[in-house]
Amino acid sequence: MEDKKLIRTIERNPEKGIAIALDLYGDSVKTICREILAWGTDEDVEEAIAETFIRLWRYRKSFKPNKGTSLKSYLYGIARNAALDKCKRLRGGLEADIYQKEEIPDDSEGIEDMVIRREEELTVRQVVAEMEEPDRTIFAMRFFQEYKVKEIAGKLELSEKQVENKLFRSKAILKKKLEERGIRHE
């Protein structure tokens, strides 16, 4: 099935679209998740697979078939990130996705400030979701999952210099897009 058609099906009839995506790519997604979570349980792998297809539905509008990325590659990147997020949570590290953290405001931060900060965090997440691959994955691994440049380079089979260059360009793009949306930080 053509990528654009599958995305349209997911938008119009999510159950049918996701079922088709599962049929087409489910085995490969399972392999990716199992490789990353090799030491985890079958339940951990299944949760990562489920999260992959939830993210496909959630971020379907971020997929840009005209930019040269196939839906298969896009989905495999999502699977890798979902499995890495699960892995990070299982290792007892910080939450991989900073937007899932439950936060309790301290006395110095008012409710209004907290709401504004959360809205800004959601905007950052949207801008990152719009990035092209592998930039999106590299940015998420570095700043959301807190991997070191060397670790990212090893996992994605890139040189450290390539990772650093992509991070530099991604930060510049992020800053520009946030400024366009009215968010400025020094």
TrEMBL record:
GO MF entry, a single one: DNA binding
Recorded superkingdom: Bacteria
Chain ranges of the RNA polymerase sigma factor 70 region 4 type domain: 124-172
Keyword Nucleotide-binding (UniProt): no
Any one GO BP annotation for this protein: DNA-templated transcription initiation
Keyword DNA-binding in record: yes
Family stated for the protein in its record: Belongs to the sigma-70 factor family. ECF subfamily.
UniProt name for this protein: Sigma-70 family RNA polymerase sigma factor
